[in-house]
């Protein structure tokens, strides 16, 4: 019983990140399909998914098309009540739904001025008064959730919930534009950037290069502010410590070097995403530890 999830380009599609995290963080079975956002034929790519016209959207195992992340969240909750997408406590659950609804409908100044990009940080970005108003409201909502319901963990409601999936792109915007927020909000941003699932999404996105940049800017770029990845590099040949790809189990054809050790993968994509952030991929790190 596997879902099909249709997403946009990972480096830039904030809504797709939300949809993907709802599957990834709650262990729901899914096949991911890419809808390229910058090719000029998005409508054609989406034609078979009508009436959906935007990403993300999902197709359920019984063939139902569901668009919009709020609708996806509720549909997944109905179908998988055991997964715990929403907080179990009724008061926390009500607030989490409120936060998600406000995210879905608000913060247009922040979204317009700071389109999500996971490539770098623009530390010289100067937020407008409207962007600052959005940031203040976001900080208020995050502090409210953390103060009332966040004692048992680092996420908005302690344990990870749909609310964290919804606000992951907001955390990415704050990080990507070096926006000034209070200590509680900054700690939450750091938690999001360090999350292995978020890091996997970003690493997979950075395997694709864009020319021209979809969101060109004259701002000075600085390194991405998330955790510093292990230093890996692609190499042209083996032999590798492993004969089979840690992801697919297929014979290796492409290689990387990590601290003088060579590991193999079944295709350049598997290799390249791992080069970008090795620690984001538990299957690879298990291989590193097992082979050591």
Automatic annotation (TrEMBL):
Q: Pfam families, per this entry?
A: GST_N_2
Record-annotated GST N-terminal domain positions: 12-78
- Domain of life, source organism: Bacteria
The alphabetized list of GO BP terms reads:
glutathione metabolic process; L-phenylalanine catabolic process
What Gene Ontology terms describe what this protein does at the molecular function level?
glutathione transferase activity; maleylacetoacetate isomerase activity
Q: Which UniProt keywords apply?
A: Transferase
Q: Where is this region: Disordered?
A: 218-237
The lineage, from the top, is: Bacteria, Pseudomonadati, Pseudomonadota, Alphaproteobacteria, Rhodobacterales
Protein name per UniProt: Glutathione S-transferase
Q: Which InterPro entries match?
A: Glutathione-S-Trfase_C_sf, Glutathione_S-Trfase_N, Thioredoxin-like_sf
């Amino acid at each position: 019983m596997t879902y099909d999830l249709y997403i946009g380009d990972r480096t830039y599609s904030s809504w797709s990140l939300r949809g993907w995290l709802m599957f990834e963080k709650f262990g729901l079975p899914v096949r991911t399909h890419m809808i390229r956002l910058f090719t000029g034929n998005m409508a054609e790519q989406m034609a078979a998914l009508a009436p959906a016209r935007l990403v993300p959207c999902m197709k359920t195992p019984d063939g139902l098309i569901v668009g919009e992340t709020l609708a996806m969240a509720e549909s997944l909750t109905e179908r998988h009540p055991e997964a715990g997408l929403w907080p179990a406590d009724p008061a926390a659950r009500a607030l989490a739904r409120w936060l998600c609804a406000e995210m879905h409908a608000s913060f247009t100044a922040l979204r317009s001025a700071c389109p999500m990009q996971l490539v770098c940080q623009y530390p010289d970005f100067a937020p407008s008064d409207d962007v600052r108003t959005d940031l203040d409201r976001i900080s208020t909502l995050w502090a409210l959730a953390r103060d009332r319901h966040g004692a048992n963990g680092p996420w908005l409601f302690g344990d990870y919930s749909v609310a964290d999936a919804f606000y992951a792109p907001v955390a990415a915007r704050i990080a990507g534009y070096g926006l000034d927020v209070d200590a509680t909000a900054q700690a939450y941003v750091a938690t999001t950037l360090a999350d292995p699932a978020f890091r996997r999404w970003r690493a997979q996105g950075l395997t694709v290069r864009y020319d021209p940049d979809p969101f060109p800017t004259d701002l000075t770029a600085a390194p991405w502010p998330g955790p510093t990845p292990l230093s890996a590099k692609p190499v042209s040949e083996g032999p590798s410590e492993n004969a089979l790809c840690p992801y697919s189990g297929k014979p290796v054809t492409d290689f990387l070097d990590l601290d003088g050790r060579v590991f193999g993968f079944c295709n350049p994509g598997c290799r390249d995403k791992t080069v970008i952030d090795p620690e984001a991929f538990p299957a690879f790190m298990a291989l590193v530890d097992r082979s050591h």
